[in-house]
Amino acid sequence: SKAKAEETVNDNLILSNAEFGKVVTRFPPEASGFIHIGHAKAALVDRMLADKYGGKMVFRFDDTNPDKEKHEFEESILEDLAVLGVTWEVGPTYSSDYMDIYIEKAELMLKEGTAYCDTTDRETMQKQRWDGIASACRENSFDENTRLWNEMRSATDLGRTACLRAKISIDNPNKAMRDPVLFRVNTNPHARQGRKYNIYPTYDFCCPIIDSVEGVTHALRTNEYHDRNAQYDWIIDALKMRKPNLEDFSRLNMEYAVMSKRKLTQLVNDKVVDGWDDPRFPTIRALVRRGLKIEALREFVKVQGMSKAVNFMEWSKLWNFNVQVLDPSVPRFTVVSDDLKVTCTVVGATTQADAEELKKAKHMKNADLGEKTYYRHSSFFLDAEDVALIKDGDEVTLMSWGNAFIKNIVKNDKDMPVSADIELNPTGDVRSTKYKLTWVPNLPSKTVPVVCNEYDHLLTKKKPDPEEPIDGLIAPVTKFTQNCVGEAAMHDLKQGDYMQLERRGYYIVDSVNPLTLIAIPDGKDKVNHLCAKYQYLKTVPSAAPPTLADKKAAAAPKGTKADENMSLEEKRAAKAAKKAAQAKPAA
């Protein structure tokens, strides 16, 4: 019976010629690097389609290049697939375990005249293929081909100059069909086979053979291989083997990102990043370290499915999915910048008064997350960037406390506030205030030192050319650090814990002692005025965020386009600046 899997109108996960219960997909990574988001898409699509059609998935290490495969990468791929939740019914198998079959099939092709051995040098061969010129070796006799083949297998000096080519066409408009190479000599030790073989097949030769042998019904490949699909089919037909269905889907390209293993390796070796799990990398371990939830990645991939549209995907779409997972499920905590804090004193309170211990929900809409203890004290800290938006005497709301007037604001020589007096207003209406501010008590025993790290795109170019050198595309500064003071409830956080820092965004615990957090992108372009990147931008003239004076000058009447494009925070700041300017007496 035909496929009984549910297929909806907007379903991007549909296979051709699929028989329910008999579908077999495969995921065949090369163990030459850590898998990135592009590989993850392929693995998830293979797994999702096998599940949808009640079938199986084969997991295979494509390891027929002794120069690239490393055991450490096999281990890392297995670890990353476990993180992704990708399982398989068959495997892991290894392409190199089928070497005797590839050799047998190659000798059959020599016998039937569908392959020949070629001693043309590489440069000349490339030019001949491009120009559609036949190699002088193309009409070798069977005996000559057999002699050269044996020389290749023995890796003699003559054998090292030869390769095995398919005899398909010399001038096919599809250059992938112009007598492609099937086997080459390689005497380097193989991670799995050692020195057993001196010749190894190309991916294009072994892939159709092993797909057929392992019972794959649907070989899913990114559409960069599209021109080689005809070659895949020709090899299957030439060997009279069972032919799997080939299905294309678009390769995942991400904006501002390096996806080439070679270039990623270069960045690691040049110490541009801290390693393969650096939060600026597109590798799975890097994205998970940065706070990506696998549920969000699955949804991101599911939406694309088997689409063939070639484009650069925006990271914001992935992080938007992530926020939808995090928002209802993570606790809320509070920090204040230790680098830029304002020490506030409650007017009329006893200087040495004991801290007031209170309880509140970790998430106002998710009681399952439980409660936390927090402390009020006569001395506490506010963020200087918050107080900079306020004029002396303004009424604000202190979150989880109540309304208060901020008075006697003292500024340093950089015009940043450093201290202020607070006059509590218990009867104040929280709905009437412009600013709702986060705070932490000035109590070393009731606070926690916190380091907040933020990361930006590694590249300055939105859509880098795959052939373009990356040296000139590296952004000068892509890591921003802020030392903070966190509330006492953060003391018990563990590595890998997720949270929202109120009014700052989502974070994940990278390490403890000291408590170090990584900011999780939220998919928005706006730079939060409390974050470390905002402070960096203030030092870059061309990228500096607007000052209050800038906002005042740019303030437009309500309803104008400028007004519509301003955030609520910016509108409030502009209005406050305008009001303050109007209140000043003329000089």
Contiguous runs where pLDDT drops below 50 for at least 5 residues:
558-570, 583-587
Q: Quick one: how many beta strands?
A: 27
If you average the pLDDT, what whole number results? 90
How far apart the termini lie comes to 89 Å
Helix segment count? 16
- Which radius of gyration do the C-alpha atoms yield? 31 Å
Which descriptor suits the 3D outline?
Answer: elongated
Helix content: 25-40%
The strands making up the biggest β-sheet line up spatially as: 12-25-26-27-23-24-13
Strand content: 15-25%
In short:
28% of the residues lie in helices and 23% in strands. The chain has 587 residues and is α/β, with parallel strands linked by helices. Strand 25 and strand 26 (505-511) form a beta hairpin.
